[in-house]
Amino acid sequence: MVTLYGSAISNYYNKIKLALMEKEIAFLEELVAPSQADAMLKLSPLGKIPFIKSDDGYLSESQAILEYLEDAFPANPLYPAKAFERAKCREFIQHLELNVELIARRLYAEAFFGRTVSQEIKDEVRAKITTGLTGLARLMKLSPYALGDRFTAADVIAWPHLQMVSFATQKIYGQNLVVDYIPGIEAYIKMIESRPYAQKISQDRTAALAAKLKNK
Ligand SMILES: N[C@@H](CCC(=O)N[C@@H](CS)C(=O)NCC(=O)O)C(=O)O
Predict the structure, then answer these.
(1) Which residue among 68, 82, 172, 186 is least enclosed by CB atoms within 10 Å?
(2) Final residue of a domain: which of 72, 102, 120?
(3) Is the pLDDT of residue 51 over 80?
(4) pTM beyond 0.85, yes or no
């Protein structure tokens, strides 16, 4: 049995949750916040979420987790069969995480956690996200899925990350840069959100956000 640790408000957590659901792997969820406690650092070396426990042990880093799940549970594959197409999927994922999500993450302190981000950082991030999204648009096929006619790992990752980047840029710049730089993305997001597992993840996310606000 796989246990997924973290919180339903995290886009990286929801990436793994969607992968588990789409692959129809049975799993349990354990609510864990990021932490620098010794016990946590033994399970996730930087105290980040998500991480999983499987019959083989604990594993952190969402991309390593996703690929482990694909290797250990080959049914309902999220990667195409052909080597080059698999590589195209990984190219897309790496580009999205390194050149878009990780850059936008610098806005989250202000966008979601009530802290302040300097104007200098906001300007720098805006320029970099714009470049990253322009590149991502060159890779995205949206016909109808991110990389063609099959739902793949690229969609599992595009949906939670682009949603966060949309929220953050809308909040900080008053402009949804994802919508502005990826033509056709709104219809794509709606299409992914019409899938039952994505709907369940959205509901859990809303409930987790409400619980967090109540506990403040
Ligand atoms: N590269 C990591 C990123 C995970 C990540 O950034 N998780 C956030 C929550 S969305 C976290 O734990 N942040 C707390 C921290 O950075 O200390 C992965 O792919 O799993």
Answers:
(1) 82
(2) 72
(3) yes
(4) yes
